[in-house]
Amino acid sequence: MGGIKTSIARKVAMALSGLFLVLFLAQHFTINFTSVVSPDTFNEISQFMGTNFLVQAVLQPILIFGVIFHFVMGFVLEIKNNSARSVSYAKYNGGANSPWVSRNMLLTGIVVLAFLGLHFYDFWVHEMQVKYIQGDMSGLNEAGEFRYYEETVAKFAGQPVRVAIYVFSFVLLMLHLLHGFASSFQTMGVNNKYSKGIKVFTKAFAIVIPMGFVFIAIFHYLNNL
Amino acid sequence: MKLNLKIWRQEDAKAKGEFKNYQLNEVHGDMSFLEMLDVLNNELVEKGIEPVEFDHDCREGICGMCSLQINGEPHGPDRGITTCQLHMRKFKDGDTIVIEPFRANAFPIVKDLAVDRSAFDRIQQAGGYISVNTSGNTQDANSIPIEKDKADMSFNAATCIGCGACVAACKNASAMLFTSAKVSQYALLPQGEVEATDRVLNMVAQMDKEGFGNCTNTGACEIECPKGISLENIARLNREYLAASLKG
User: Fold this and answer.
1) Number of folded domains that form chain B
2) Superkingdom of this entry's organism (chain B) (predicted)?
3) Closest Cα partner for B176 from A204, A81, A45, A5?
């Protein structure tokens, strides 16, 4: 990050890493949604993603780097922004000229970061343990069947608190994306005849994808009452 | 109407400031905000109290001198105006009005409500110009054909009066709207192409050096700008900057 020194370069780096994470989110949702419509497909894709060399050795480290970079750069930018006004206004009517989501990206981002900690603990740490510490790459349970679907469902079945945390976190992610996704195009200089369409698409994406994750969590909870 | 004024008083740049409360009993709706402050200052002078220092000059929305954060918004609650164009009819009898200077480390307070916005001048000096050889063979600017759309966009960018409301409104105290307007007014014209690379790199470098924050695209600057400078200019600045960076 030391090489990205100017304000615009940092913002562009932030936007690019955000767009990368948006792509990952779309791919993640697509795979997760198969757990609702076809458990077998979900198991097969999970096994492929969990054992494919390119995914595990190349894409996964890039993803982790992308997540860390996005959050660290977010804090770097925030520190600079805070230092630009050391005396705050006694009366600040931010709501008069800008949406709440655009002024609270750090807050929504911190919630998403905290959620990622839980999510990694729930799924990623367990997978790393089974695959790379226990050395079991089969993806099978003791009955000889794929374990991914049942393990995923077990995280939500009879777990109302975890489901509530997921719902809350994805609502915050939606708020984060409602500003961040469209904003990244502006930061990269895209402001032309397609901007209106981009804005509509990014807003729709920001609502549909996080709410889709909420639907999946609630579906597995209700389906196993 | 009667008004309660809560005004920031600060002796000089280094002094510790504080809010002081004043009451005005005969404010007319047809007064401009600055005229209301004139009335207050007359009363203060009569009482032997130091009048409130505030920036003003043309009083017709052109010069960009009048600043003031009024009830949490630069230039007050109205849109597309400067403080001198704000009328007291926008307020109600008995209102309390909080008046603060524009807050940004790059705009240090000179006294009371007056701030030093020379950081904008230094950004402009870093590249907000074109170099023209005036030795006698200067080409008439009108002989260069320019698309009407581009000429209009350039003109609109050039209407920025450098008042600093964009910085004051931005939660990050960013100067991107100002800098983007000053870059755009030249970037859109053939006369500005020759120095385009150096211009944008130098102006952004100076903007950062002055200590302004980053743009997070909240759009507050565009809403509060008295001249309606559009966020399109910030996108153009980003494009110009990226292109210039790639050129080196």
Assistant:
1) 2
2) Bacteria
3) A81
CATH number at residue B60: 3.10.20.30
Parent domain of B186: 118-136+144-247
Pick B216's closest partner by Cβ from A92, A105, A189.
A105
- Determine the length of chain B: 248
User: What is the pairing mode between strands B73-74 and B69-70?
Assistant: antiparallel
Q: Are A165 and A159 in contact (CB under 8 A)?
A: no
Q: How far is B158 from chain A (nearest CA, A)?
A: 19
- State the ipTM, two decimals: 0.91
Asked if B104 and B122 sit in the same domain, the reply is no
For the stretch A83-112, pLDDT in tens is 999 999 999 999 999 999 999 999 999 999
Same structural domain for residues B32 and B103?
Answer: yes
Asked if A79 has any chain B CB less than 8 Å from its own CB, the reply is no
- Cα gap B208→A7, rounded to integer Å: 7
Name the minimum distance, in Å, from the CA of B84 to any CA of chain A: 20
- Chain A, 167-196: which have a CB under 8 Å from a chain B CB? 179, 183, 186-191
- CA closest to A103 among chain B residues: B218
Backbone phi and psi for residue A146, each to the nearest 5 degrees, phi listed first: -60, 140
How far, in Å, CA of A11 to CA of A13, rounded?
5
Burial class (CB in 10 A: 0-12, 13-18, 19+), A204: exposed
Q: Write out the two tokens for A161.
A: 């608190």
**Chain A CA closest to residue B79:** A97
Contact A84 B239 (CB under 8 A): no
* pLDDT tens figures, B192-239: 999 999 999 999 999 999 999 999 999 999 999 999 999 999 999 999
Domain identity same for B58 and B154:
no
